[in-house]
Amino acid sequence: MSSVSAAATLPTQHSHPTHQAFFDSLAALCGKAFAGKVVVDNARSDAFTNKRLVMHVRECSDDKIAIPFHVGEDRSRTWIITRTGSGLSLKHDHRHEDGSEDAVTMYGGITSTPGFKQVQAFAADSYTQWMFAEKGLPQSIGNVWKMYVYPDSFSYQLVREGREFRVDFDLNQAIDTPPAPWGAEN
């Protein structure tokens, strides 16, 4: 087999145009950080009350974007959006202050529709459903995470039966970049 025909048979990483447009909108924010606020929380979690919320579009490549989400001094959360070739994947990387993985980490979902260039929904994937069942979190098996990126704002939303949480970030005002998330190399 010649090298030309071998290269022609390799799979390529094509996304639906709306997935790519969404990914590109996030990538355009790379290196910047933004302050946010909880706008919906029907379970009123004290974890977010009176805390400074910051998203930092910290790492970007052709197929992956890592966005640490800081809650006050807690730097344990990072959203990871990955191009899969058939859509987008969202994972939640949770770490302890020493950098070790939390018992509940790398959960998330995948896009099952083209979505919109501004909005993507990530329904819990099979690994996530299994992990939530194993960890005694059956209420989370039906989680759907949504991300919205518009010229002026970014939103992260969690919805499931009986639960809704959303935090909005103002993209008009970049802020100083925060320290690295727990477990990341500086």
Can you characterise this structure?
- This protein has 186 residues and is mainly β.
- The chain has a single domain, classed as Lipocalin, CATH 2.40.128.
- The protein is built from 3 helices and 11 strands; from the N terminus they run H-H-E-E-E-E-E-E-E-E-H-E-E-E.
- It has a 10-stranded antiparallel beta barrel with strand order 1-2-4-5-6-7-8-9-10-11.
- The N terminus is likely disordered.
Spatially, the strands of the biggest sheet line up as: 1-2-4-5-6-7-8-9-10-11
What is the number of independent domains?
1
Give Rg in angstroms: 17 Å
Biggest pleated-sheet summary: 10 strands, antiparallel, barrel
Distance between the termini: 44 Å
What gross morphology would you assign?
A: globular
Poorly predicted ranges: 1-7
CATH level-1 class: Mainly Beta
Organism: Alteromonas ponticola
Protein name: Secreted protein
What's the structural blueprint in terms of helices and strands?
Blueprint: H1 3-8, H2 17-27, E1 33-41, E2 53-56, E3 59-60, E4 64-71, E5 74-83, E6 88-94, E7 107-110, E8 119-124, H3 126-134, E9 144-149, E10 153-160, E11 163-175
Antiparallel strand pairs: 1-2, 1-11, 2-4, 3-4, 4-5, 5-6, 6-7, 7-8, 8-9, 9-10, 10-11
Task: Summarize it.
It comes from Alteromonas ponticola. This is Secreted protein. The protein contains three helices and eleven strands, in the order ααββββββββαβββ.
